[in-house]
Amino acid sequence: MNSFECLTRRCLAGVFWLMGLVPLPPSSQPCSLLLSLAIRCCWIVYLVYLLAVGIGFWSVATESVGNVVGTMLFMGSTVLGLLLLLESVLKQKTHGQLEDLRFQSQLQLQRLGRFGRGRQAAYLLPLIGTQFVCDLVRVLISAEVGTMISPVFLISLPLMWLLRLRYVQLVQHVMDLNHRSLQLRRSLLALATGNDLWQPYGVQEWAQLQTLRKTYQRIFECYEVLSDCYGWGMLGLHLATSFEFVTNAYWMLTGLYEEQNLLILTFNGATAVDFGTPIATLSWYGDAGAENGREIGCLISKLVKPLGSRRYNHLVSEFSLQTLHQRFVVTAKDFFSLNLHLLSSMFAAVVTYLVILIQFMFAERSANAYPG
Fold first, then answer.
1. How far apart are the first and last CA of the chain?
2. What pLDDT is recorded for position 47?
3. How far apart are CA 94 and CA 226, in angstroms?
């Protein structure tokens, strides 16, 4: 791994630690443990302050549908931030299991002659850079327009980065598992390419196939533990992102209807891009991992030897059944799977709720026009 890749991984690990998105250090490291607790306390104080600000807006939230939607979004994001901090502490044991399984799967891949780790900097840095650019545009627009766009925009920026960096963390984990499944698929392809159907199997082929099957098992367990470790957070992030899309689309439509300033429309559009790119990236890599698993299942059928022994063919059949029942899928507590189908479902839900909000908007305008 080159130095730039190592530097990127270390920097991201440091940022995740400062954000409180990683488990607490063990008690054998008291200095690191106390510092991590202090950082989490600072985050909790900040989020409680945001909750107090949100509660203060409830008095004016009932003035319009837009105020109600904005206040609910702000309060929901703040509560989600608290839940993510809580999840990183409660899932400490599960996170340790994930690291152990990743280490075991790496050892299995090294037995197959697969070394090295996948490149992530070329994909993660543009994702983070896009969010920085969008935030810079929103800060400049906020300085130009003032608080008429969002009175809580500046004070909620750290919270927004907390949520987005959780997405980046999930993308990094899924990319790492995808690289391992890709290495496994290439090893299986090499074995299938050199396979002669009409010759008995060799002892080395059986041992290599057994190693491939165990490696598949370890990678599948990594997917399972990853879903368990970050499942509730993924569910909350998906709900918050869907609501973010609905609200910003609603504000953009109301802005066009009222012929508002172009800067306000740009602000809402940049907000949608801020949250849209991470979930689209996560769904893309989640679908790529599932595709690697399907291709591994298809390759196994090429390993059958009609003249081979029952022992070898039984292992091939067992491996094939394993790929059918153990899929490489990241789920949010089984509510949904991270794939491209999720994006289409999310878009359909956004359109549905947007239509409902528009109906409320016209009903509100009719009531204001005819107060009697």
1. 72
2. 93
3. 8
